[in-house]
Amino acid sequence: MSKQTYSVCFCWRRRFKLALAEAPLEIKTLFEEYSENEIMTPSHLKRFLVEVQKQEKATEEEAQAIIDSFRHFHRRGVGLNLESFFKYLFSDDNPPLLPSHGVHHDMTLPLSHYFIYTGHNSYLTGNQLSSECSDVPIINALKRGVRVIELDIWPNAAKDNINVLHGNTLTPPVELIRCLRSIKEYAFVASEYPVVITLEDHLTTDLQAKVAEMVTNTFGDILFTPNTESVKEFPSPDSLKRRIIISTKPPKEYLGAKEKDKGNDSQHEKGKEDGKASGEDEAWGKEVPSLRGGTIEDYKDNNVDEEDLNDEDESDESVKLAHNEAPEYRRLIAIHAGKPKGGLEECLKVDPDKVRRLSLSEQQLEKAAINHGKQIVRFTQRNILRVYPKGTRIDSSNYNPLIGWMHGAQMVAFNMQGYGRSLWLMHGMFRANGGCGYVKKPDFLLQTGPDNEVFDPKAKLPVKTTLKVTVYMGEGWYYDFKHTHFDQYSPPDFYTRVGIAGVPSDTVMKKTKAIEDNWLPTWNETFEFPLSVPELALLRIEVHEYDMSEKDDFGGQTCLPIRELRSGIRAIPLNSQKGEKYPSVKLLMRFEFIN
């Protein structure tokens, strides 16, 4: 026990006791139950792992290995005492997800059967209007495991080379060749599964030919090129390991696209105005938009007309301008994109002889989901749907990814360079399957019933399971933050928010009480979360520091895929706002699934 002093004024100081971390009462009770003479032997520990931690395959050898690794916390080498047992439970050796699982989903199915970690405008370092274009955010995304990189390609000023930039904005460009070389160098650092480069093309035919030459020379044998232009089924991630895939619309004439984009300048201006109102982010980011009523049902016009679908991101002029295409460029395209004319019904038609990629903005998807939810699910069973942020998100914020995932959208494209709660959900989803960037979609999104029925995202489903969460305590802030970071005059007052991000009926947030003036808060609070679609649910965990006079401070966060969550008492490492793991900050929690 030591003391910490805070200066209140020149002549007055406040002193607070700093206690050592002590096992919560329930941990002490469990230790008594699974030990003898205050020692937990390998057989006792094995029984604890099987019965409490639900590790049915645990062995005495594994239990002995745990005891050996914590031998320095106790004198007698025959087992764990209470202190070493508590240290084990609160250590990195007891994570909520099992790292040894690695990639464990079936990776031999078509690409359309997976959620794919997808970036939007991957080259931007900050906002959508004026931030620098660079290969650095591309490298950072690939290091995190992102598998889809988006590049907007434009002619340079001399019209003899290709730049990457956000068109009709003030973003300083970066050369395409630099981005391609960085992709080659870092593509498979975090994952050996394929990287898809989606190109938004604004080039003349001669520059398209130059892109084809650049791409071919840069990637060589690792570039995947299909034997035929149209395929009946996408290849599998397993068959495309360590390969680069190009996805774009069939080539279009640059001048034609440029004339069309002039009409979108007013959209960018509107984005500037709307962006002023979007700068009110809390210290830890805005709350994730609700799917219950704040997005979908707010649309009075329930129809998505053809004009809505012909936006700047995906307008398809390939038929009109086909004679201008560069054939060597077209041959590179492994995943063809574009929007057929004729409105939403045509867009969502499933061609038994051809698969393709369709792109919709978050708003288009929300509107389409009102009356065409099941059609979208059916489309995504064979084809790829990419969802991208609306144009007014000039601050590079993001939307609720569940709107895409619950409809089977594989490529839910996010701005990866910022931070906020929506991005934390994206990080959480792709912690699954060993962090390889591909997560197999739940079977219900891929199955067709006897009457050709598919999953209805609007259907009210019964509760499948209930997740019981106990928040015991937290530690590590004293080591990772300055002692006046949270409060100038006293230790912090921490509380934890815990909840579910999932389908609307599962989504909820709850919180513990705040523990005053304590670097080692102990809450011992339990919450229950009924889950109707646990396969899509994410467990959200945030710690905040209560501040009476100002907005509460951020103290850490994480988001975990519930379908891979380990039962039992676990140590939960927390991350910064940008998703970087803190060295010491963690929570001790218990997870129980009640059927």
UniProtKB/TrEMBL annotation:
Enzyme category, top tier: hydrolase
Bias-annotated ranges (Basic and acidic residues): 253-285
Pfam families in UniProt: C2, EF-hand_like, PI-PLC-X, PI-PLC-Y
Record bears the keyword Lipid metabolism: yes
Keywords: Cell membrane, Hydrolase, Lipid degradation, Lipid metabolism, Membrane, Transducer
Compartments, record wording: Cell membrane
Keyword Hydrolase part of the UniProt annotation: yes
GO cellular component, one term: plasma membrane
Location of the C2 domain: 447-576
InterPro entries: C2_dom, C2_domain_sf, EF-hand-dom_pair, PI-PLC_fam, PLC-like_Pdiesterase_TIM-brl, PLC_EF-hand-like, PLipase_C_PInositol-sp_X_dom, PLipase_C_Pinositol-sp_Y
GO molecular function, one term: phosphatidylinositol-4,5-bisphosphate phospholipase C activity
Residues annotated as domain PI-PLC Y-box: 359-445
Enzyme Commission designation: 3.1.4.11
Membrane topology field: Peripheral membrane protein
Example GO BP: phosphatidylinositol-mediated signaling
Cofactor(s) of this protein: Ca(2+)
Entries under PANTHER family matching the protein: PHOSPHOINOSITIDE PHOSPHOLIPASE C, PHOSPHOINOSITIDE-SPECIFIC PHOSPHOLIPASE C FAMILY PROTEIN
Protein name: Phosphoinositide phospholipase C
Biological source species: Vigna angularis var. angularis
